Amino acid sequence: MxxxxxxxxxxxxxxVSPPTRLKPRRVQPVxxxxxxxxxxADKEDTTQVFExxxxxxxxxxxxxxxxxxxxxxxxxxxxxxxxxxxxxxxxDWLRAFPEGSVGRAYLAFIEERNFSAYGxxxxxxxxxxxxxxxxxxxxxxxxxxxxxxxxWHVLTGYRTDALGEACVVAxxxxxxxxxxxxxxxxxxxxxxxxxxxxxxxxxxxxxxxVRGRRAAWLPGLDYEALFAEPLDSARARLNLTAPTVYxxxxxxxxxxxxxxx
Length: 261
Known about the structure:
Blueprint: H1 3-13, H2 29-41, H3 47-56, H4 60-69, H5 72-80, H6 84-88, H7 91-95, H8 102-113, H9 117-124, H10 137-147, H11 149-156, H12 162-176, H13 179-195, H14 201-214, H15 223-226, H16 231-237, H17 244-247
Helix pairs in contact: 2-3, 3-13, 4-5, 4-10, 8-11, 12-13, 12-14, 13-14
């Protein structure tokens, strides 16, 4: 096989689109604020998360991708360019992992909630100026950050109530250094303070940020290998301690935040 045919076969296997040049992202704080108001009003409006992330992304995706290249395992993942949404949508693949593994825990998580990896991808495409599907390594990295969100729920132990979502977002801030995550986490924390639940909701969000700082860097992981690991072992290896403050908040109080005026 010639070098030219090898390159052609690799391109075919990866379903590579025509080359794309991504435009630099301008920070849009007013757009982010409006999207945050809509998100606070309806936590199920996932499109607003992507509006905020697009408005405030700046150079965070480029920096994160470079960090990936600087690590051995991350560099390999960048070379392979696996589309995680495709893998996560394959329930037969997920069922092949042993009981107690990260993969089976993820499967239980999505089946309990009737979630779909493609569903989150569809929401991300609703943002008018998104380039998340572009044929570019930075766009691939952005898709990767989108697709690991529910895996991070499983790894961190946060559920999908309003407080749990805010905690995963706060955890994601130091992991990705994307300001949008900080804005969402802070906005929801303020709403919980206003709600005066009597429980440490805002402190749970702060602890999630601390956990994100102390944990191993998750964006560059080999998730296919991770899914085969026992969940408890994976958490220990990645320095993911228990979400103790979040667990102190009763289930019925985890959605009890106020509304922004």
